[in-house]
TrEMBL record:
Residues 79-88 have a biased composition (Polar residues). Residues 1-20, 79-112 are annotated as: Disordered. Residues 99-108 have a biased composition (Acidic residues). This is SUMF1/EgtB/PvdO family nonheme iron enzyme.
């Protein structure tokens, strides 16, 4: 019978990590928390929250019998009951009055931006593996739009600023039935103007890639499997954009949609004077171009039927905006 833990503390969490023979970075990625959180557990500064208790249960249950045996032996050597708690350590709260910024990714990390109303999700601070060579890169925490900017989103911007609408909007109106499709035929300058209006920025290529790949260095948002059915790419035969919430099976690890396929996203990263990086591939792209690490760029004046954008904002800026507007601030 596999071992069970009535209540996880840092000692059990460390025993499980060491039984699996993985680093704190690898263990954090498996649980969907920050490396800093693992360090705090193991130091005894904070005990895992209920959602992380469940995650630890799931990881333990999925371990091989050899790992479970090592874990059971390590726990028995600690000479303590797993259901007890270290004195002086608060359950679910840090020992200091400092608010806990490192929380698992989930609905509690989502908020609507108070200016353009788009749903955004937190990408926590930390290291991720960037590019085709998976080089470790540290990024501060930021929020990113869950969905690409849609025609409906862009129409609100056009109305508010009198910005020129995309060329395929007849009489300045969204084509029928495309309200929830990503806006296209926008230049980098158009995307930048929207970002400035909404008090956001275009993502850097590194921010975009981390939001797509997470911290494990996997090839695609959903893992390393070549699965064209999870995205709107050339192999799917759609030959046009699809609604931004269409491909839920391709969503991971931060619940951000269309990080592969549908439309390319403009980034703020300048590849050379007057040219900016594009990420994500499009319905026109073969699946082999869909990996988020793939490099692409274009002139800032380029506009096509397969190019759109989404925005980001630093975590501190987002929280300040929500506080000013009197909206609940994600913890």
């Amino acid at each position: 019978m596999p071992p069970t833990v009535s209540r996880w503390t840092g000692k059990e969490a460390r025993a499980l990590r060491e039984s699996k023979r993985v680093s704190q970075v690898e263990f954090a990625a498996e649980l969907g928390v920050s490396e800093r959180m693992i360090v705090r557990w193991e130091k005894g500064n904070v005990t895992p929250r209920p959602i992380n208790q469940q995650g630890l249960d799931t990881v333990l249950a999925a371990c091989s019998s050899d790992v479970q045996a090592r874990f059971a032996e390590m726990i028995s050597l600690t000479g303590r009951a797993s259901s007890t708690q270290d004195p002086g350590v608060s359950s679910e709260q840090p020992a200091s009055p400092e608010p806990e910024p490192d929380v698992p990714v989930g609905d509690e990390d989502q908020a609507r931006h108070p200016i353009d109303g788009k749903l955004m999700t937190l990408v926590p601070a930390g290291v991720y593996f960037a590019g085709e060579n998976s080089e470790p890169v540290y990024l501060p925490a930021f929020y990113i739009d869950v969905f690409p900017t849609t025609n409906a989103d862009y129409a609100r911007f056009v109305t508010a600023t009198d910005h020129k609408p995309p060329q395929h909007w007849e009489n300045g109106q969204i084509p029928e039935g495309l309200e929830n499709h990503p806006v296209v035929f926008v230049t980098w300058h158009d995307a930048q103007a929207y970002a400035q209006w909404s008090a956001k920025t275009l993502p850097s290529a590194q921010q975009w890639e981390k939001a797509a790949r997470g911290t494990r260095g996997e090839i695609y948002p959903w893992g390393n499997q070549r699965t064209p059915a999870k995205v709107n790419c050339r192999e799917g035969g759609k030959r046009s954009t699809t609604p931004v919430d269409c491909y839920a099976s391709g969503v991971r690890p931060y619940n951000v949609y269309d990080m592969c396929g549908n439309t390319w996203d403009w980034c703020s990263t300048e590849s050379e004077p007057g040219r900016y990086e594009l990420k994500g591939s499009a319905f026109t792209s073969p699946f082999l171009r869909c990996a988020p690490s793939t490099f692409n760029d274009a002139s800032a004046d380029m506009h096509d039927d397969d190019t759109g954008f989404r925005c980001v904002t630093p975590a501190e800026t987002m929280r300040a905006l929500l506080n000013v507007r009197g909206q609940p601030t994600p913890t």
